[in-house]
Amino acid sequence: MPKKEGLLSKHFIKLILLEFAGLVLLLFIKYWNQDISVFQFNWHYTGNLINIITSGVVMLSLICVRLINPQYFYAFSKVLMRFSVAGTVCLVIGRLLLLFPIQVPVIYLFNQPVKRIMVGGFFSLYQITQIFIIIYCWMIIFGSTGNNLFRALIYNLGIIVVFVAFVLFFLLSYKTLPLQKKNTKYDVGVVLGAAVWPNNHPSPILISRLQKAIELYQGKIIDKIQLTGSNAPGEMSEAEVSRAYLDSNYALPKTDIIIEEKTSSTTEQIRYIKNELIEKQALKNIAVISDSYHLPRINEIAKFYNVKLHTFGVEIKLNDQIGIVYHLRESLALMMFWLFAL
To answer: How far is CA 83 from CA 5, 86, 206, 321, in A?
Structure first.
C-alpha cells in the first residue's frame, strides 16, 4: 500500500503552486510577446478564458485525486510533478527563443519561419502537459492503474483533435458584423500582405486584396492605401510588389500609397496598426482588407489588442481540397494565438 500523507502534503502543495505559477507565467508571456502591459489584461478574451479554465481544471483534478483516491496520490505525484515541471520549462524555452537572437537557419515551412514553428512547438508542449495531467488524474481517480502513460497520450491526441475541430467550426460559422455604415469613410485601408510568386509577381490572393482596396479607394470609402508585408529570402517585399502592381495598373497619387516592409505575420500587422496608425498617427477609422476566411482571426487578434477595426473581406474561389487546407491552417493559427498570442 502506498504511503499516506496529510491532505496538504508537500507534494500536493508543490503541484498546486507550480500549476498556478505556470498559468501566471503563460499570461505574462502572452502580453510580453505582444509588447502589451499586463495591466491591460482582458479577463473576457476567449484565449485568456481558455488558459484560465484549463489551469483551473488541472488544479481541480489534482484536488479531486487527492481527496477521492489518496492512496495512489503519493505514488503518482512524482509523475505528475515531472510533467508539470516539463511544461513550465517548455514555456521558458519558448520565451527565450523569442527573447534572444538565437541563430536559426532562415527556412520557411508552411509559410512560417522555422524559428516561429520551434517557439510554437515548445509552447504547445506546455498545453499538451496540461491536458495530460488532467487525463492522468482522472484515470487515477477511476482506478485505472495499468499502462496509463500510453492511454493518456492517446486520449490527449483525441482532445487536441476535438479542439482543432471546435476552432474550425468557429471559423466556418463566424459572422462578421456589418461594420461599415452608410457614407462612412475611413482614413486608410490596410492591405494585409500575402504570398509573392517567383520573379516578384503578386499571387492571385494578393492581387484580389489589392483590387478590393482599389474598389474602396475609387468608391471614396478609404482615403489612402496602406500596403504591408516583408519579404522571404531572394524576394522583393510583399509591400513593394503590391506597390509595383498598383503603379503598373492604376494611376494613383504617390502620396495616397503608403508601404510598410517589416511585418511578416498577421499579428505583427495588427500590432503595427495599433502602435503606428492608431497611437502615433491618431487615426480613428481604419479599414483592414483581407480574404473572408482570414477575417475571424484578424478580429480575434484585434480584440486582444483592444482595438476596433473595420474589416472588408475578399471572396476567394477555392476548390474543396484547397479550401479545407486554408481553413485548417487558419484554425491552427487562431488556436496558437488564443493559447499563446503567437
So the answer is: 21, 5, 44, 38
Cross-sheet strand order for the sheet of 310-314? 257-260, 225-228, 188-191, 286-291, 310-314
* Cβ–Cβ under 8 Å, residues 93 and 25: no
Q: How far apart are CA 242 and CA 195, in angstroms?
A: 10
Diameter over CA atoms, the chain: 83
pLDDT tens per residue, range 247-257: 999 989 999 99
- For residues 226 and 228, give the distance between their C-alpha atoms in angstroms, rounded to a whole number: 7
Write down the pTM of the prediction.
0.87
CA of 97: how far to CAs of 38, 88, 102, 104, 119, in Å?
Answer: 21, 15, 7, 10, 7
Task: Report the distance separating Cα 122 and Cα 125, nearest Å.
Answer: 5
φ, ψ at 25 (rounded to 5°): -60, -45
Q: Which CATH class is domain 188-318?
A: alpha beta
| Domain assignments of the chain as residue spans, ordered by start | 10-172, 188-318
In tens, the pLDDT along 102-114 reads 665 555 555 566 7
